[in-house]
Specification:
The complex is a heterodimer of chains A (about 270) and B (about 220). Chain A has about 270 residues and is α/β, with parallel strands linked by helices. Chain A is built from 8 helices and 10 strands. Chain A is globular and about 50 Å long. The termini of chain A are far apart. With about 220 residues, chain B is mainly α. Chain B has one domain. Chain B contains 8 helices and no strands. The longest helix of chain B is centred in the last third of the chain and has 39 residues. Chain B is elongated.
């Protein structure tokens, strides 16, 4: 696989300098941060082959907010794990920041997960024995950030998500919504390119879930990240630039925000700005 | 493969930081840690008591004053030294105690791994390397093992000396084979710690082999 910088066609690879400072990287926003090409994945469960993904092509642009919709068993989570560098495809290719994840060794995959991707889980997955501050500091610990800097940044991020007064609370002392806010702050800790949120509102009530979505929508622009969520929750769609519908391991439909407004508007019966 | 510096290799966490995390894990799960540790304490106290008592008896049988030996002979205290059957039984018991403590450690560490399945997965999603996971679990068990063994060895030695004192009287204090006992204590200390580390190897390996994907799973 060649990834030469001079090979500047439409999917031009991004240079190192561009990653150094994202502020000046506006020019590069057009570049696809995720590209999946003909991705197939089969699991073998008890001698039976389950085709989780049957040839999925998907490109996500830098700064986009994409929701992947689909019932459970649609291959949503599998696709998600590929994008997150957690799983490799049987066939096809997945590029994250123009890097073919299949070519990476475990150390490089760990680096990718640490520096390029921020995860948000349905079950929050905070480290129970650590405070909110320490939880946000964890990814920075792994990326080798100096402790004092990590602490300052974690405090700053927690203030951004509205938890400036709860830095030293343990997860059990926080409500579900607050825990998910900590998770959002943690996902942003290493200035990732992508935030992957797997059913981020699944364990939250309607109002809290909506708050988290709004927050992700705002932070996406403030932090220049791409947000990809997996969901079967319609209220998640309002913030999306695009919605990808996945059924039986194949993309059946892709809707843009403009088209969505009408659909969601009628379903939810309210404005979707 | 070269991606023009876009991807680097994840660096290992410095040992001091890993140690901090492991220490913290023990502290917040103190009760669990104490349970694991208490198993080691008991087994090692037993082992130490047996070997120290044996050494002490042999030393006194060799170097004790004629009056003391006469008295001990009447009380049949030293007879057991030559009873091969009784000695064999004792060693069986020691072996059993060590095995029970080993299984206890293995069990407790496996439970600890299972309990922290999503935590481990999350750590891996955040960029932790497999090596760190192994390191954390081994450090945790080594610390517990060392502390437990140290306490156990101290108790064992104390018991052996206490028994010696009641049986042989104050004359015993002049007859303690310090160098020999010190060597034994060191062996017990190493054995106890090694036992814990070996008991934690498999659980730690299992934890490290866990797929980060598992943390993403919403269904448990």
């Amino acid at each position: 696989m060649m990834n030469d910088e001079n090979d500047s066609l439409e999917d031009a690879p991004v240079t190192n300098e561009a990653f150094a400072g994202q502020d000046g990287a506006d020019v590069l926003l057009a570049v696809h941060v995720v590209r999946a090409l003909g991705v197939r994945k089969t699991f073998h469960l008890g001698g039976e082959a389950v085709h989780a993904l049957r040839g999925v092509d998907l490109s996500v642009k830098r700064g986009e907010y994409v929701s992947i919709m689909g019932p459970s068993g649609s291959g949503k989570t599998t696709l998600f794990n590929m994008i997150g560098g957690l799983d490799k495809p049987d066939e096809g290719e997945v590029f994250i920041d123009e890097v073919d994840i299949a070519a990476l060794d475990t150390f490089e995959l760990a680096w990718l997960r640490c520096h390029k991707i921020g995860y948000i889980f349905q079950t929050f997955n905070l480290i129970p024995v650590a405070t909110a501050l320490e939880n946000v500091m964890f990814p920075m610990l792994f990326s080798g950030t100096i402790q004092a800097d990590a602490q300052d940044k974690a405090a700053e991020l927690l203030t951004t998500v509205g938890l400036g007064d709860r830095l030293l609370h343990k997860p059990v002392q926080l409500s579900g919504g607050q825990q998910q806010r900590v998770a959002v702050a943690r996902a942003l800790a290493n200035d990732p390119a992508i935030i992957l949120a797997d059913e981020p509102t699944g364990n939250l009530d309607l109002k809290t879930g909506e708050e988290i979505i709004r927050m992700l929508e705002t932070l996406k622009d403030d932090f220049h990240v791409t947000v990809i969520t997996a969901t079967h929750d319609h209220k998640m769609l309002a913030a999306s630039d695009r919605v990808v519908y996945l059924t039986d391991g194949q993309i059946t439909d892709i809707k843009r925000r403009e088209d969505l407004d009408i659909t969601v508007g009628t379903i939810d019966g309210k404005d979707t700005d | 493969m070269d991606f023009h510096g876009r991807v680097e290799k994840q660096a290992q966490l410095p040992f001091s930081r890993a140690f901090e995390i492991a220490w913290k894990n023990i502290r917040v799960r103190l009760l669990r840690s104490l349970l694991v540790t208490s198993g080691i304490i008991l087994a090692l106290a037993f082992l130490t008591y047996i070997v120290c008592d044996d050494t002490l008896k042999r030393h006194i049988a060799k170097h004790g004053s004629p009056e003391l030996l006469e008295r001990l002979k009447k009380a049949a205290v030293l007879k057991a030294l030559d009873d091969a059957d009784a000695r064999m039984q004792t060693w069986w018991l020691v072996g059993l105690a060590l095995m029970v403590s080993f299984v206890g450690i293995l069990n407790a560490m496996l439970l600890s791994v299972t309990e922290r399945f999503s935590e481990i997965g999350t750590m891996k999603c955040l960029g932790a390397l497999d090596f760190l996971i192994v390191e954390l679990f081994l450090l945790e068990s080594t610390l517990q093992g060392f502390v437990g063994t140290a306490i156990g060895v101290t108790i064992g030695l104390g018991l052996a000396l206490l028994e010696g004192w009641t049986v042989y009287g104050s004359e015993m204090w002049g007859l303690i084979p310090f160098a020999e006992l010190a060597k034994l204590l060191l062996v017990c200390l190493l054995a106890g710690t090694a036992l814990t580390v070996v008991g934690a190897l498999y659980p730690a390996w299992r934890a490290a082999k866990m797929q980060p994907v598992d943390a993403m799973r919403s269904e448990i």
